[in-house]
Amino acid sequence: MAADVIDGKSFASRIRESVACYVAELVSSIGVTPGLAVVLVGDDPASQVYVRSKGQQTVAAGMNSFEHRLPATTSQNELLGLIEQLNADASVHGILVQLPLPKGIDESAVINAISPAKDVDGFHISNAGMLSTGQKAMVPCTPLGCLMMLRQRYGDLSGLNAVVIGRSNIVGKPMAQLLLRESCTVTVAHSRTTNLQQLLSDADIVVAAVGKPLFVSGDWLKPGATVIDVGINRIESAEGGTRLVGDVDFDSASAKAGAITPVPGGVGPMTIACLLANTVTACYRAHSLPEPLELSV
Ligand code: GUN
Could you tell me the pTM of the whole model? Predict the structure, then answer.
């Protein structure tokens, strides 16, 4: 039987609607509009598209969007100066520095200069540490979106076998931490794992975030597994031109899995929706108000 296709686009739009309601509530109750500052250094075309989209969706949810576009020649000290200014600005509740940064700028130094309370990407070492020790943290947006989709499918995840493919700081590691917190049995595989097929044959949940097009074959899956495909890869299409594919071969996987996210239209739209959710959460926390539970996990 064909797998259920998890519609990330409509899930994300429901999250954005909730975000807009909570924003309206903050405005009417305490007169505060949540604000998100996005910093883009250089002119990477993909980053420009993401940043524009983040700004548009922030405004559409009723929040303030502050965009800072800096030239590729910006020095690390200049960037750190801007972050210091944003940390001190009470109208800014969330700060996101778009990655990758130009060569010569130390990404870790920049990320760790962001106030942890405003780190809506959840990349600061303090947030990473809080997440891995089970404390309240800002959770990275893509894993947060993946977990929301898994919770929607299963409710309780405890005891399920989960394999996360990929060990990045942005997706793989925080995803594994979140699944552990849900009492899954978690295995982290990556590009050097030698027995992936064997691991997947017993996985109820597969989160693929390895950045290799069509890396996971449907034949390897446990029948009925839930597959969350974080990959977005552009490949040559058989008909000429290019097409977007995930890290999972959708056609073979959807014949074996119980549920699967498509690419595009799966995890992708959830990431920005969760960024907006994190910004609202940061604003509630900044004003010592009980935060909306549906916007976090
Ligand atoms: N570049 C690619 N993905 C991301 C992300 O989630 N956050 C930031 N800041 N930069 C990115």
Answer: 0.97
